[in-house]
Amino acid sequence: MNKDDLKKLGIEDEAVQKKIIVLHGKDIEKLKATNETAKVDAEAAKVEIDGLKVQVKEAGVTIDGFKNMDVESVKKSADEWKLKAEQAGIDAKEQIGKIRTDGEKQVSDLKFDHAVEGALLKAKAKNPKAVRALLKTENLKLNEDGTLLGLDEQLKGIVAENDYLFETDEDTPGFVKGTKTDGVLGDAVTNAAREAAGLPAEQE
Fold first, then answer.
1. Which residues of 38-50 are buried (b: 16+ CB within 10 A; e: fewer)?
2. CB of 169 within 8 A of CB of 196?
3. Read out DSSP for 126-164?
4. Residue 181 pLDDT more than 80?
5. Looking at the whole model, is its pTM more than 0.85?
6. Phi, psi of 148 (to 5 degrees)
7. Residue 80's closest CA among 95, 66, 96, 94?
8. What are the residue ranges of helices labelled H in the chain?
9. Long-range contacts for 174-183 (Cβ within 8 Å, ≥24 apart)?
10. Max CA-CA distance within the chain?
11. How does DSSP classify residue 166?
12. How far apart are CA 166 and CA 86, in angstroms?
């Protein structure tokens, strides 16, 4: 993902673009690690399948050895080995399918996380992690174009109730200093409110 891709998504702010590109780079590294894990799992599955092939081959040898035995006994043993071989094939397919599904889910989760982070940066969230904690991510859906369905509605509500979590183009109004007596809320509460708004504690 480069600046041109971000501009196509409507992200013009250069600082936001840099943050998203850095996050995208981290996601790529995570994806590489995920792919390496999937490769290791696939190799393990291949080894297991090779072992199953050996078992099937041994089953063929065993069946050949039964040719001179009682027909019914040979048939019974052959059926048992056939069932074992079929079950081994089913187990191998299920394991490979699970590895593939887990890998696809991890990739999908990374794409979703990247889209959320990018959207929160675009919305000028001061602390994307804090804002994300207020989102109901289970109600969001990642579109093919990388946008998130349902995010705008949730952000409007969050901004309305927690506007201090977002940067604005307006100047932050200064606190009016009172007299030497404590205010109604007290210094501790006032300083906590200033800290939540990203302002330094009031000096004595």
1. beebeeebeeebe
2. no
3. S-HHHHHTTS-GGG-EE-TTS-EETHHHHHHHHHHH-GG
4. no
5. no
6. -115, 120
7. 66
8. 3-8, 14-65, 71-122, 128-132, 151-161, 187-196
9. 175/199, 175/202, 177/202
10. 109
11. B
12. 59
- 112: buried, middle or exposed (CB in 10 Å: 19+, 13-18, 0-12)? middle
Q: Which of 132, 134, 130, 133 is nearest to 195 (CA)?
A: 130
pLDDT in tens, 98-136: 787 888 788 888 888 888 888 888 889 889 998 998 999
Dist. CA 125–CA 136, nearest whole Å: 16
Write out the two tokens for 176: 């009016």
State the pLDDT at residue 15: 73
**CA-based Rg of the chain, rounded to a whole angstrom?**
30
Overall average pLDDT of the 32-49 stretch: 81
What is d(CA 180, CA 172) in angstroms, rounded to the nearest whole number? 24
Tokens read off for 151: 């995010």
Q: Give the dihedral of Cα atoms 193, 196, 200, 201; nearest 10 deg.
A: 30
Fill in the amino acid letter for 107: V
* CB contact at 8 A, 128 and 121: yes
Structure tokens at 32: 């590489």
At 69 the three-state DSSP class reads coil
Phi, psi of 166 (to 5 degrees): -125, 145
